[in-house]
Amino acid sequence: MCSETMDQKQTEATISESEEVSSIEWEFINMSEQEEDLIYRMYRLVGERWDLIAGRLPGRKPEEIERFWIMRHHEAFAKKRKTA
């Protein structure tokens, strides 16, 4: 009975997380040239450790940095940038 409850909680958490992610409308995040440069350099050093990168950019959250990176490097967003 305990395992059923834990499985249900995990399933509910997964569903709510996926709903949250899919409901977000992503708008392009504007970064200054200095911020972009720092993001690229930090990414080469630490990889996808967005919290470390965001720690070097005052006022930026790890989620913003990750979203910026995805929007710059994901094929679906690249196609949208080319048509805009």
TrEMBL record:
Bias-annotated ranges (Basic and acidic residues): 1-10
Subcellular location, record wording: Nucleus
Keywords: Developmental protein, DNA-binding, Nucleus, Transcription, Transcription regulation
GO biological process assignments: anatomical structure morphogenesis; cell differentiation; plant epidermis development; regulation of DNA-templated transcription; system development
Keyword Transit peptide: no
GO cellular component, as recorded: nucleus
CDD domains per the UniProt record, alphabetical: SANT (cd00167)
GO molecular function: transcription cis-regulatory region binding
UniProt superkingdom: Eukaryota
Domain annotation Myb-like: ranges: 32-69
Record has Transcription regulation as a keyword: yes
Residues covered by region (Disordered): 1-20
Record-linked PANTHER family: MYB-LIKE TRANSCRIPTION FACTOR ETC1, TRANSCRIPTION FACTOR MYB51-LIKE ISOFORM X1
This protein's name: Myb-like domain-containing protein
Organism: Manihot esculenta
